[in-house]
Automatic annotation (TrEMBL):
Gene: aqpZ
GO cellular component, one term: plasma membrane
Known catalytic reactions: H2O(in) = H2O(out)
Protein name: Aquaporin Z
Residue stretches spanning the membrane: 7-30, 36-56, 85-105, 131-154, 166-187, 207-228
Organism: Parasphingorhabdus halotolerans
Motif placement: NPA 2: 188-190
HAMAP family hit by this protein: Aquaporin_Z
A Pfam short name: MIP
Chief place of localization: membrane
């Protein structure tokens, strides 16, 4: 596949993740009597990854997340020279999805972006459960670490074939079930950037944490998983 093909696949896939995941929170969860709630939103994020893994996994690897791309590099699974193209494509897809979601959400007379937002991430007074910055930093590092461990393990050549998308999607669902009350769940800098750019204000002011923490967690997981591959050597190209 060419770099353009891979980038386009990543942009489309990340659009689907943000539109499906954040869209479920903004649109479907807004109806308490029939809404999907925290469990439904968590499942929605997981399902976007499962569906896209089957749709574009064979094209770009279906990263959909700058932390995943960097974590795979740290684990010896991805070449450094392709990182910028992937991250740019992922952010473009996320911003486009947030813009599309905003366009649709504003079709409802009661929607107000200041009050309702676009499922952006936050801490302190922007945390759904009122969790402080330290707690947000810790949980984003920890859960991104485990997310990358799941990805690296499920896509290992020694793992059962064909089940990686399910393991990764279910892993992301569990991560959301744990951390929506803390940060609204990021573990994905692109997912955080799209809604924050459209919302602006405080969402942009706190965006730094949702780049720093996931990338730290991803790099740690990449280095740790190298100890499990039997050689500690990079496997890019194998």
């Amino acid at each position: 596949m060419t770099a353009i093909q891979k980038a386009l696949a990543e942009a489309i896939g990340t659009f689907w993740l943000v539109f499906g995941g954040c869209g479920s929170a903004v649109i479907s969860a807004a109806f308490p009597e029939v809404g999907i709630g925290l469990l439904g939103v968590s499942l929605a994020f997981g399902l976007t990854v499962v569906t896209m893994a089957y749709a574009i996994g064979h094209i770009s690897g279906c990263h959909l997340n700058p932390a995943v791309t960097i974590g795979l590099w740290a684990g010896g699974r991805f070449p450094a020279n392709e990182i910028p193209v992937y991250i740019i494509a992922q952010v473009v897809g996320a911003v486009a999805a947030a813009a599309a979601l905003y366009l649709i959400a504003t079709g409802h007379a009661d929607y107000n972006i200041v009050e309702n937002g676009l499922a952006s991430n936050g801490y302190g007074d922007r945390s759904p459960g009122g969790y402080a910055m330290g707690a947000a930093l810790a949980i984003e590092i920890l859960l991104t670490f485990f997310f990358l461990m799941i990805i690296l393990g499920a896509t290992d050549g020694r793992a059962p074939a064909g089940f990686a998308p399910l393991a990764i999607g279910l892993g992301l669902t569990l991560i959301h079930l744990i951390s929506i009350p803390v940060t609204n769940t990021s573990v994905n800098p692109a997912r955080s950037t799209g809604p924050a750019l459209i919302e602006g204000g405080a969402a942009m002011g706190q965006l730094w944490l949702f780049w720093v923490a996931p990338i730290i967690g991803a790099i740690l997981a990449g280095f740790v998983y190298k100890f499990f591959d039997g050689s500690g050597q990079d496997v890019v190209g194998e």
